[in-house]
Amino acid sequence: MSPFKSEDRTELVEQDDNEFVVMRSPASAEHDPHYEEVGRFATRAQAEKFLESTDFV
Questions:
Q1: 7: which DSSP letter?
Q2: pLDDT at 9
Q3: What is the pLDDT of residues 10-49, one digit of tens each?
Q4: How many angstroms separate the CA atoms of 6 and 17, rounded?
Q5: What are phi and psi of 52, to 5 degrees?
Q6: Which candidate, 41, 6, 4, places its Cα nearest to that of 22?
Q7: How many CB atoms lie under 10 A from the CB of residue 20?
Q8: Domain locations in the chain?
Q9: Which pLDDT belongs to residue 56?
Q10: pTM of the model as a whole
């Protein structure tokens, strides 16, 4: 059973000065996310494209 109206917070894009940082929390984090940086990009569009094209295991 999954929570009603839950948000997927496994992957995030956050701005850090002039860069957009892709953060990911592994499945092993379970209820409390443990975000790790997986990439930095010049634009939000590049960061989002990276997330769409990357299959995290």
A1: -
A2: 62
A3: 888 999 999 999 998 877 777 777 889 999 999 999 999 9
A4: 29
A5: -65, -30
A6: 41
A7: 20
A8: 11-53
A9: 59
A10: 0.71
Instruction: Note the pLDDT of residue 14.
Output: 94
What pLDDT is attached to residue 47? 95
Measured between alpha carbons, how far is 22 from 18 in angstroms, rounded to an integer? Answer: 13
Residue with the two structure tokens 């379970």: 30
Residue 11 is given by DSSP the state E
Contact 2, 23 (CB under 8 A): no
Going through the chain in order, the beta strands assigned E by DSSP cover 11-16, 19-24, 36-41
Place of tokens 């997927």: 8
Q: Which of 46, 52, 57, 51 is nearest to 19 (CA)?
A: 46
Contact criterion met (CB below 8 Å) for 55 and 46? no
Is residue 41 helix, strand or coil?
strand
